[in-house]
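Hello K.,

You asked for the raw outputs rather than the summary table, so here they are, unedited. I folded two proteins back to back in the same session to keep the settings identical. This is the first:
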Amino acid sequence: MKKILHLFIIAIISNTSITYATELNVLKNTNNTYLVGKKKIKLTCSQSDAEIYVNDKLMGKGSFEIKVPDEGCTTVEVIKEGYITAKEEFCNKKGLSKLPSKYHFSLKKDDAFDATVHSDIVNVDFKITALKGKDESWKKINQIILNQFDAIEIADKETGYLRTSWVVKRFKYSAVRTRFIVKEFSSNPLVYKVKLASEHSQNAMAGANQGEHFKEWGRVLRKYSNIESEIQARVK
């Protein structure tokens, strides 16, 4: 009788362990592991509509509670247009500082946003038909561009190719780089493809030619916003 009872108890314990292990495994494989852990952190943001990404996955806006796994880390990014992205990694490991129960993200305003305007034609090729002939059109295009950009990197009248150097405008927390490119698309009729390239970096000290720090931006500095329309109007 004792032997039977002993086997019955072992079976119950074994079954409980299997069930617990199965449940734990399910939790660990839900939402990239960050729902399992012993440390809960309530996240809040200064902007109620800011998007909260946990381990690269959008989980909410304005506030969200995470659980950091034992001996693991959870990365949080808070993103809102017009503000500098905030990023923080929370690690629940021995030897590290104790994690807080609450954490507030105070987003910094990106001054570059207010100094720029949205543009549907930025970073895309825009065709302009030139009716004044190649010599006159090329001269006017050069004049307009030189009024806006200090340095032309490449200019070849025969092939109809022109590219300015990158011009960087720096702000407190970010930088914007801009350049203008002209390509002759066809000679008869004379058509040019022009492109106003605008890129944004959240590294205020990023160098003009450090492309790894910049990303294409659907906004352009106000001073350049009308350059394409000006070229189109003057070469007709």
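The second followed immediately with the same parameters:
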Amino acid sequence: MPWRKTTTWLLILTLISLLIMPHALEPLPPAINEGRGNAAHFPAFFLLAILFFSLFSPQRPMGLRIISTAVIGIALALGTELIQSFTPGRTASLHDLMADFFGITSALAGLWLWLNSRMTESPWKKSLHLLISFAIATILAWPYFQQLNAHFSCQKQFPVLSDFRSPQFALLWKVQNGSTATLSQLIAPPTLTVTLPEKNTFTGINYLPGPQDWSPYRQLKLTLHNPGPPFQLGIRIDDDGDCSQLNSRFNDERLLKSGENHFSFELEDIRQSPQDRELDLTTIRRLLLFTQQNSQTQKFSIVRMWLE
């Protein structure tokens, strides 16, 4: 029916517009992030694949419908990432692209198994096909829904930004440039230990909560532990604007002494730090703890981070 196709196209255009609009729903930093891709990409392309598949006539061979949908989906994934690279506040990411492909693959595998189950007369074969479809979708979608759940769960504990008594907080931290992170919950208090390899440049770890409103608070506080000799640790904070240049974001450096360290940053200083503009405290999307270059492997542990 014409109204069904119209509704389908409206849903497709809405999803595409959300993927390429200037303000991201879950903004992520550039492709230096070595964690999972944007959690919204998997369900978006899962749904887009189903919608495009439904536009093809049922009279066409099922294999042709699946191949056509896959080609359109892959082209759309590549196109949206290309557009994002030129869109303010958005960045192209290989991890987002992989999430797109996983969404398309999961949807088409499920459709193929579901349609095959409808053509068989054996009840146990139908059940088996449906069970396999559900298992494939669950396995592929689980990391992305787990990340979304972490965002929702941690928002409930705001203004605590990270307190690793809840393991969900660890999912909001993503390492970069060869760094690694290990969650330790058997010690008191629980910590996230970051290892910064030698010789690599700009090693560190990103805190990626999605847009957070820090404006009602006065201070950002961190408790870090350094088990080794002192070293300089940089801190960078981005809002939802263009933070690609050094003078368009907050940057600072502190000496991380041996043992426990307590750092405090005035949010008013953070707001006024960029030379070209003021940082928007209502849409903080990223905090990065990093070193520019290490002569030897360094370690530090994140104990707690919160706003007051």
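The radius of gyration is 23 Å.

Happy to rerun anything if the numbers look odd on your end.

Regards,
P.
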